[in-house]
Amino acid sequence: MTMIKTFAAGIFGFAMCASATAFAGGAGNYSVQGSNGEPGTEYTGSLTIAQTSKDTFKLNWNIGGDKYTGYAVGDARILAASFTSEGSSGTALLVDDDAGGYKSIWAFNGEKRMGYELIKPK
Fold this sequence. Notes:
Elements: H1 3-17, E1 28-35, E2 42-53, E3 56-63, E4 66-74, E5 78-85, E6 88-96, E7 102-108, E8 115-121
Antiparallel strand pairs: 1-2, 1-8, 2-3, 3-4, 4-5, 5-6, 6-7, 7-8
């Protein structure tokens, strides 16, 4: 199993087993470490999450100066998001990591590879 598939399986398993008492991330400022899903494509950046209603959120990533805007539904423990940047779009799943941050998997629409991010509170 590739590292991405293993990571994705772990995220899914974690989402299915997350307890109601988990430390929710939610609105705030975060640092991001991630990979585009291939060796040598690691990156760092930041993410701001703003809660826009009881179950909706706006996400703004800054990755190496590239800006991504997203919208998510969820309960702060698990967020299902869509995002766009300069004509590209994709989807992401963010799952609370029990430490105030998230583990995330994501993919651009039409791509076959999946990226991942570790998102930590600032």
